[in-house]
Amino acid sequence: MNNWILEYFGMDGANEGLREALCTLGNGQIATRGAAEESFADGIHYPGTYLAGGYNRLKSEVSGKVIENEDLVNWPNWLCLTFKVEDDDNWFDLSQKKVLFYKQKLDIKHGLLIREMRFSDNKDRETSIISTRFVSMNDQHMAAIRWEFKAINWSGNIVIRTSLDGNIKNEGVKRYQKLNNEHLNIIDLGQFEKDNIYLLVQTNQSRIYMAQASSCQVFQDNEKVNFQYEIDKIKGKISQNIYLNVTQAKETIIEKTVAIYSSKDMAISEPLVEAKNSISKSETFNDLKKKHQYSWNVLWDRFDFYFSDPGNTILLLHLHIFHLLQTCSPHTIGKDVGVPARGLHGEAYRGHIFWDELFIFPLLNFLLPDLTQSLLKYRFHRLDAAKRLAIKEGLQGAMYPWQSGSNGREESQVLHLNPNSGKWGPDNTYLQRHVNLAIAYNIWQYYEVTGNIPFMKVYGAEMLLEISKFFSSICTWNSHKERYEILKVVGPDEFHTSYPDSEEPGINNNAYTNYMASWLFTKAIKILKLIGNARRAELLQKLDLNEKTISKWDEISHKLFIPFMENGIIAQFEGYEKLKEFDWNGYRKKYKNIQRLDRILNAENDSVNNYKASKQADVLMLFYLFSSEELVESFGKLGYDFTPNHIPNNINYYIPRTSDGSTLSRIVRSWVEARSKREHSWYFFHEALMSDFKDVQGGTTAEGIHLGSMASTVDIIQRCYTGLVTRNDVLWLNPSFPKEIDSMDLTLYYRGLWLKIFFRPNECKIEASDGALQPITIGFKDEKILLKPGDTIIIPIHR
Ligand code: BGC
């Protein structure tokens, strides 16, 4: 088993979209789906190129209402490369040929997509093409394709056509196809420096320019060919037709190099100028490829790990790290972009940014903390927008939107199409105010790992305080309960958006939200101590806070209401216990896939709001984010008697009542059972690992990968099974591996030091890099050990 190669044999039209998503190549700046070079959007293939932060808004009319959506734009297709034999009328289309061999190979280690095909036409001419492409991880603006073309049993004249195609719409998600989807205006296209081509487009609302410039070189018998060509401009598409003669059994090499710039790039004059310059001075395919592979090697040195597990676990973990780094990479650092939940791999959820960061940043903190910092700044730069959203609701502080895109406006759709019934209905999931708590949690985690006080002083503290201000303004005092409450929200389980038969959106006292709000106030008070008196005074004044508000936060943090049922089982929200039990067995018999119960029940004129049925982990999120010690302490602070014994009661209660309609759900399942039922945890870990690879939701991966779930599978290995927790300036380790793993090697960053950790059955060895001024404290099980820069410690493990 090769842990780095994802291979597909034969053509498979039904799963082409899935392959395209999983074979996407990118570098954190741009990403291009693994569509065939010769293909176009035809219902089977869907070429797509996406730019980090490349959004555009369009208005559409739905059910008599004008709605506006912001989408991650599908930009011009730079892949276009095709051929025809001179006497043939049609351009190359594999579906019209007799396919003798087809293999598609994603080389994860080197960031290459390779397609090997052999086919014959209706005149029995047999041809083979090996196509290799990459999107450079070295130079964020460059991408290249190389074709090794061989006429196996014939000789003759062929035409190679290379194009840049601007006639592109956002058509990747069927549900959105009735909405307006033409985002691009063609500004210019043409030829430069004799035989190179270019295309300049601009989005019609956000006015982002993208320029693509391209050159094509041909080699025969190791010599560069001086070919005849023609330039063809048809409606937004520029093509170069190259005339060649091919000889039987001899190879013709065609190399297409493309430079892509946008007006969002830093340090540029104008995108087209830069794209043309890059092509003029561009290196050969092989030189570009060498540098690209070197950059991937550097990343793998850091992100790769080892553990002793047979099977394809490691291959899929590599695939997940690969897609994470293709969505956000060192090229992302310093840019004003966030991480779209579905990667830069498709158009699902319109490329919006949700709370999924909560499942991504903890992993990045330990491997590329500068990247987390940059992604947190995406939120910081939208603090004013979040404040405006709070004001609009009559609230204070910063209320970040559930779905975020370009400028921090709420991008959640107002209407949702139920594909089961074909009906549009209101979408109230925007009430997920807990997204703010995820941002706060991520800020705090980043701080715990890096100890970066300057970041906290300038960015982190202000966000934490503004979010606290917001939560303090939505907390209301209930004198009957003598508790603070948070009303009319939606929890992480998006199924429950209102009470049965209620017209009003929202549910009250979502336990997860309330618990996290209490946690938030505690951290906000702590951060005010950490940043020093001068900054504290500045921030209090800037945010119009005073000692009274701070002590009110402290009071709320002790008195938030958490609804409980019997046996320490936390009610997902107030009144949850009154809902009906759902007929899980009956519906599993009736429907093949009941993950999206909300749509199924809605199409039956029923509502999931009526039932104890969750889409994904909600209460269970608490056991995902916090250790039992932290939970017991925090519930104690809130005045609730919660013991570690109550945890399994909650897990056993909610797991059978969850449909796993989100890929994030399996992650939490695996995590929360890691200590008590290791074999369950391993099972769900594997299910999570398969989410995109097997497209377990039945069609959603083709529209974009599920980045939160991908990153967290790696995090389960990195933090969950190793018991890695950062708390109060200590890096705690408490390994508890499933039986399939008996040793593991990891690289981690913590507080200025790079650590190499080797877990073995009887010992754990930790080597610290040099380069930091301070020693760090490692906590192993219950013992604390000081580790100095450059030192190695070996801790015996008694089983
Ligand atoms: C999940 C959300 C998630 C979103 C984007 C939804 O299906 O319910 O929790 O944030 O997808 O991944």
Automatic annotation (TrEMBL):
Belongs to the glycosyl hydrolase 65 family. Substrate binds at W355, D356, K615, Q616. This is Trehalose 6-phosphate phosphorylase. The active site is at E494 (proton donor). GO terms for molecular function: carbohydrate binding; glycosyltransferase activity; hydrolase activity, hydrolyzing O-glycosyl compounds. GO terms for biological process: carbohydrate metabolic process. Signal peptide: none annotated. Residues 726-786 form the Glycoside hydrolase family 65 C-terminal domain. Keywords: Glycosyltransferase, Transferase. Residues 10-263 form the Glycoside hydrolase family 65 N-terminal domain. Residues 319-714 form the Glycoside hydrolase family 65 central catalytic domain.
